[in-house]
Amino acid sequence: MLILGFESSCDETGVALVRVGKSGVPTLLSQTLHSQIKLHQAYGGVVPELASRDHIRRVLPLTRLALKEAGVQLADVNAVAFTRGPGLAGALLVGAGVAAALAATLGVPAMGVHHLEGHLLSPFLSQDPPQFPFVALLVSGGHTQLMRVDGVGRYELLGETIDDAAGEAFDKSAKVLGLPYPGGPELAALAKLGDPAAFALPRPLLHQPNLDFSFAGLKTAVWTAHQRLGASPSDQQRADLAASTQAAIVDVLSKKTMRALAQTGLRRLVVAGGVGANQALRAQLNALCARGNVRVHYPELALCTDNGAMIAMAAALRWQSGSHTALIAQTGAFDVKPRWPLDALAA
Ligand code: KG4
Ligand code: ZN
Predict the structure, then answer these.
(1) pLDDT per residue as tens digits for the range 39-96
(2) Which residues line ligand 1 (CB under 6 A)?
(3) Residue with CA at minimum distance from ligand 1 atom 13
(4) Does the global pTM surpass 0.90?
(5) What is the span of the domain harbouring residue 34?
(6) Handedness of CA 198, 200, 201, 205 (dihedral sign)
(7) Minimal CA–CA distance to 261: which of 158, 178, 181?
(8) Which of 196, 280, 297, 307 could be 130's S-S partner, Cβ–Cβ 3.0 to 4.6 Å?
């Protein structure tokens, strides 16, 4: 069983090939990726129309390369997976259109995968895949969620952000500090030079017993702190503010995650999504999990941010568990779901 997967929900075009062998363990044969960071940098954020056009330019050359690197032919493909949502409508339509066309040409099914399910299952691409059940912390540019995961397609939402996502908090705070898009990794790099205790920033909702998050107030607090530094803050002051911002985000994410583990009684954690690449978050979660006797799994660093491998892998795991039929699109037809809650997915 050979699955070709496409990711095009935002500013990365990703294509990958995953094989489900007789042993049943899906393996990644190849993956190709083009990031549009340079394209959007001048605008300080993703411009949807430019994103769609660039996906169109990149998707077929990346597909040819992925096939070549895997040493397989297009005719060998048994199913074509694509990100059906959530994401930018125009960007999603590129991947969906190409996948539907290829699937119809090959006479194989097209499978519409949920982007967050791709992130959620991305640790299955690592050397040390998790076992079900586990708690998942999904932290990306658009989402911040704690889920209970009992199996492929069996997801229960435990808590989520009521306003900005964690990645958005990183990106917006980075903008306040004058750092380029995408702000998360830039802010994390600057934070390495600063003191995380220099500024007392709020930890919204931390002391409420629920598992929800709120990051909009933090961005305002960062803005106010930056204003107070005057027109030309020193490099050290900027680094201190970056470190304090990161500490506030990481603190809330890790403590709420530990609370989710305590409430569910589970001893396994999966961290996924772009913010999962953050080293400070990993360090704090590793320390808390070691103390709480919890096994924590991360995707490979390169697979934390958007990629095609996680989409092909999610489709493969769905196929393997027999829960793929709901994802199969009618031949030649396709649609996308720019807004699509993960817990609305049928197993
Ligand atoms: O999962 P992802 O690639 O795309 C979405 O599905 O949104 O996540 C992108 C987000 C951006 O907000 C980016 O700034 C953030 O992940 N990010 C990071 C780091 N790497 C990416 N945030 C903090 N530290 C990082 N090292
Ligand atoms: Zn993503």
Answers:
(1) 999 998 899 999 999 999 999 999 999 999 999 999 999 999 999 999 999 999 999 9
(2) 10, 140-142, 167, 170-171, 182-185, 188, 273-275, 277-278, 305-306
(3) 184
(4) yes
(5) 2-121+304-344
(6) positive
(7) 158
(8) 297
